Amino acid sequence: MMLAQLQALERDFLMPTYGRNPVEFVRGEGTRLWDSEGNEYLDFLAGISVTQLGHCHPAIVDAVTSQAQTLTHVGNLFYTEPQLRLAERLSKLTIGGKVFLCNSGAEANECAIKVARRHRRGGEIVVLEHAFHGRTLGALSATPQRDKQEPFEPLVPGFVVVPRDDPSALEDAVGHRTAAVFIEPIQGESGIHPIDPLMLLAAREACDREGALLVYDEIQCGMGRTGTMWGFESGGGPEPDVMTLAKGLGGGLPIGACITSGRYGDTLRPGDHGSTFAGGPVIAAAANAVLDVIDDEAFLAEVAAKGERLVAGLRGLPVDGLRGRGLMLAFDVEDAPDRARQLLLDQRLVVNATGPTTIRLLPPLTASEQDVDSALTRLRALFETA
Known about the structure:
The radius of gyration is 21 Å and the shape is globular. The model has no long low-confidence stretch (mean pLDDT 97). It has a seven-stranded mixed sheet with strand order 4-12-11-10-7-5-6, sandwiched between helices. A four-stranded mixed sheet has the order 1-2-3-15. It is built from 14 helices and 17 strands. It has helices at residues 3-13, 46-49, 58-68, 81-93, 105-119, 137-141, 146-149, 167-173, 197-210, 231-234, 281-294, 297-314, 336-345, 369-385, and strands at 25-29, 32-35, 40-43, 96-102, 124-128, 159-162, 178-183, 186-187, 193-194, 213-217, 242-245, 256-261, 320-325, 328-332, 349-350, 352-355, 358-361. The chain has 386 residues and is an alpha/beta fold.
């Protein structure tokens, strides 16, 4: 089917919620994508930190194929081994409590909001300026970005916003009515902004003082993306009481998880929450395959090293505001959306712009040193022709 035909189908049958690039991808392998005209691209976006092991990684393909030939779905009224094995692994890899599996990052944050409100009924939730926690109504209420919130008001009440770089303001905002503090250790959608460890420490101390929960949204910065298993570890932050995961956990398939520490594992009670599709055998098999690869010190050390190589190369380019950790990086340029489009169409490099001046880089963690060098060459070519 021609691209023009697909665009016509989109116009006639899809709600107009996405701004798409004029490319139809038909195949992927590792860090490479191919479009319907046979052009090859280097993927440095990974589906927004989703295809953590690249496209069609053999371990994921094998796990999904085998499980799909055995059992695809029975729902959560019965036991399936892949789900329970995944829950055990996630608990032991994180903060040692209990897991609720779901289908997306927004759903994981909805669960965390319910855990917080069950912990302290009617309590307020403190969030940081520029945060992004999802587009469902509760998660959107925790996302203090006016352009995203305003069309859907009234929102869920009880959210308090503080600056992302002011520990004193955060400490002052946490009181006896606070149910939780929600923080992305590295803010992703706002343009890759690591949160100062002093903010994380202030949040931890304030939550301990008032009996509130500290929640880390690791949806984009977790799963090895920063060169450590979890984003808060790369910044030296304290442990949270609740973590939310998604994106890279499924290696390309839809999954989310809300995980508590041991102390809060039984906060939600029977009937408080649920999901029809969550933690199904095929998705859980894929997530277990992803963990088999990423849960490895040598693998994570390579991610950190490749991130340093990418940063070193970016420092030689005419960009500003270089920031991030590991393979979660961003920089500032003028007309970032146009630059991202040029990179896609002229240099066959897949990146994206998170705003008018920010380019975001989220390559698969399996990207090679040669891939890093190739991306830098393509970026350099963009600036030389600008």
